[in-house]
Amino acid sequence: MIIDLPDTTTRDLNKRLVEERDEGGVVALGRVLTLVIDVGQHDPEEAIDAANAASREHPCRIIVLSTIDERSDSHLAAQIRLGGDAGASEVVVLYPAGELQQHLDTLVTPLLLPDAPIVVWWPFEVPDDPAEHPIGRMGVRRITDTTQCSSPTSALRRLAGSYTAGDTDLAWTRATLWRGLIAATLDQPPFEPVHKAVVRGEATHPSLDLMAAWLAWALRCPVEIDRIPGAPAITEVRLSRTAGDIVLDRPDGKTAELHQPGQPSHRIALPIRQLKECLVEELRRLDPDEVYGEVVTKGLAKVPA
Predict the structure, then answer these.
(1) Which of the four, 16, 21, 23, 275, has the lowest number of CB atoms within 10 Å?
(2) What is the DSSP secondary-structure string of 55-107?
(3) Using only C-alpha atoms, what is the Rg of the chain?
């Protein structure tokens, strides 16, 4: 069910939510968190779809902020989505105009679930300092997605300079399976140090930088990035050791092949991770990702921009 409110206030919104909950039997106590999504002037639908999918594992209230309304007068339009149009959640989409766009935190505060943690997500352009952003100050976790930024690598470097515990980026989450496979491979004999690492992939994809930063931080070896325009995200990680190279190669963005000295090659399903599964993974934890913090603050400075 979708309820359009072309001219409203947060007080009226709250009242309508309570009415619909009482009539429809929606139990607010079943919500485990509030997810605040700041889409800026971008179309919010992709982010809402991903949040709805994630809400089936993490029931929550979703508050979406869209500043696409460019009218100069202070005005608030909103939309409430419940039932099948909201996954396992309640979705409130806010369209502030005029001065209200300068006070997004005051719009969000009355709609937050009481005594529930708050996660803030920027699906597109990211603030310079998420923890100091008016919306970001509310969150125990702050999720950015530099893959969707106009200048992904620059945005990632800015985030590294302002990192605060609780920050994370979906470019890091997109490389989780790569990190797991490489860690498992290095946990097998021969236990030799890695002398050099090379990460190859799409020229501007920030997962390359984070993968390289993780290798530099974890293995304490020099790391190169081979940027290939038009490649499907990360395509190869090569680790050089005395016994020979370990190569994890995924040229098609779907299936990887693992090559190790003296062993047969292994084919592994490794499709490019979709937005929905990355968001689900990040919502599983509300504590700071300490490894991401170490990688982005210490490892990133060790790899070429």
Answers:
(1) 23
(2) HTTS-EEEEEEE-----SS-EEEEEEE-GGGGTTSEEEEEEEEGGGGG-HHHH
(3) 22
Task: Note whether 123 and 278 are within 8 A (CB).
Answer: no
Euclidean distance between CA atoms 133 and 138, whole angstroms:
9
For range 53-64, the mean pLDDT: 92
Rounded CA-CA distance 241/186 in Å is: 11
**Cα separation of 172 and 203, whole Å?**
16
How far lies 231's CA from each of 173, 203, 235, 254, 265, in Å? 19, 7, 7, 12, 23
Q: What is the pairing mode between strands 33-40 and 266-269?
A: unpaired
What would the pLDDT profile of 72-106 be if each residue is shown by its tens digit? Answer: 789 999 999 987 766 667 899 999 999 999 999 99
Tell the residue number behind the tokens 């149009």, with chain if given: 85
Q: How far apart are CA 254 and CA 119, in angstroms?
A: 31
| 279 Cβ contact list (under 8 Å, min separation 6) | 50, 51, 53, 54, 121, 143, 170
Q: Coil, strand or helix: which one is 196?
A: strand
Please tell me the pTM assigned to this model: 0.94
Amino acid at 189: P
Cβ 228 vs Cβ 203: under 8 Å: yes
Continuous segment of H or E residues that includes residue 38:
strand 33-40
Give bridge partners of residue 223 from the DSSP assignment. Answer: 197
